[in-house]
Amino acid sequence: MWIYEPKDGENIIIAMFCSFFDSNFPNSLFLVATGWQVEVEPVVESYPGQTVNLRCHMALRAEGRGKDQHRCVSPKFDPNYPDSPVKGRVSFSPSPPNLDSPSIQISDVRMTDEGKYICEYATYPIGNDQGVTYLVMLAKPQNSASIVTVDAGTKPVVVARCESVDGRPAAQISWVTTANGNGTTVSKPGVDNTVTVTSEYRKVPTAADNGKDISCVVAHRTQTKPESFPMKLAVQYAPQVTIVGYDNNWYVGRTNVVLTCQATGNPVPLSVQWKTMSGEMPDTVQIRNNELKVLKVDEAVNTTFVCEVKNRIGTSRDQVTLTAKCGCLKMFSSVVYQCHNECCLLLFSVTLNILTTDPVSAPPQVVWIYEPKEGKRINIAMFHPKFEPIYPDSPVKGRVNFSPSPPNLASPSIQISDVKMTDEGKYICEFATYPVGNEQGVTSLVMLERALK
């Protein structure tokens, strides 16, 4: 007989086939059996809707024959299939069955058919023997994963979720990520004897976590390999703001310098607003989106600029304090400048390489030329190493002199004292050599209405 033992419940006979010995049958076979073994498959796997074969075989060892040994075996009755969960779907195979191999098959198997199936032989006077096959029902789960959008905070929350629905047996879920969190997994009964497994990944979300890679990996017996779901964490946070562009060298007269307000945030920042701590925006400033452009640096930009950025999560800001310096444009290699009351002292460091091998070549001479905004060029200072410095008639005569004095050709800088508004313009330092030719550098002197404090 075959007996079905469900996981939860009592044993049920599902198929029977009876035989007995009749001494009136002279052709009946008598066996003296000193031992036998019921052979079955320990585990059989199947999917819903399939037909499954549960094999059973009786292996006997015969050691002799005799007329008085009542062991076995003339088929006498038809197979019997009592009421059971598999009635109408179970049958002996082959049919009619034989005692050597009374296997059964179950058609249209269901998830609820899972359990132990016992093939049992009953004999007289030897007793019973049995073999047990475990029918494992498999169901391929429906796997999915999703990201949970969260706000940056200080407490652990669910940031990702993974689910394996209606599988049999239960799926195994794991997480792969560089984020510092933990996964928790729970299982619950699904439909038709299946299992649904849900895993949640929790962590304390920070702005730095936004966009980090995270993958849910689902392993199941019905899959040839684990199924992976790559995702990216979604953490919303208030803007992070930085002002760039100020190099601490915004000298008076410098033009078209720009401050840029750089901001990151999730969601993307909705607005960028420029302000000053004083409340007044200088006239020389132009604002376009996240850029603040100073058309010409003057005393008015000696203030603190503030960039304020908003998104749905919050508002953030950054600020930078500017200092306008009295400055002069670069001449040859560098310019050193300072302001003192109404006097702008210009000190030029000039490097001049004279490429000549002719010992009789004339030494170079230097000439300073003033070019006003409107008017002709005027020589204001000249020096030749064989002669004394000369200061021709000019608007700065009496206020201009070489510095140091006496001058040297390595650094023939000039100093103009008691500068006036009318002194603004270009000042050209020109070296004249033979036979190399001339070389010059130009500095623009910018005059302010009053000295910077």
From TrEMBL:
It is found in: Membrane. It comes from the Eukaryota. InterPro entries: CD80_C2-set (IPR013162), Ig-like_dom (IPR007110), Ig-like_dom_sf (IPR036179), Ig-like_fold (IPR013783), Ig_sub (IPR003599), Ig_V-set (IPR013106), Nectin/PVR (IPR052659). The keyword Disulfide bond applies. It is a single-pass membrane protein. CDD domains: IgC1_2_Nectin-2_Necl-5_like. Residues 75-101 are annotated as: Disordered. Keywords: Disulfide bond, Membrane, Transmembrane, Transmembrane helix. Residues 141-228, 239-323 form the Ig-like domain. Pfam families: C2-set_2, Ig_3, V-set. SUPFAM superfamilies: Immunoglobulin. One of its GO terms (cellular component) is membrane. This is Si:ch73-22o12.1. It comes from Seriola lalandi dorsalis.
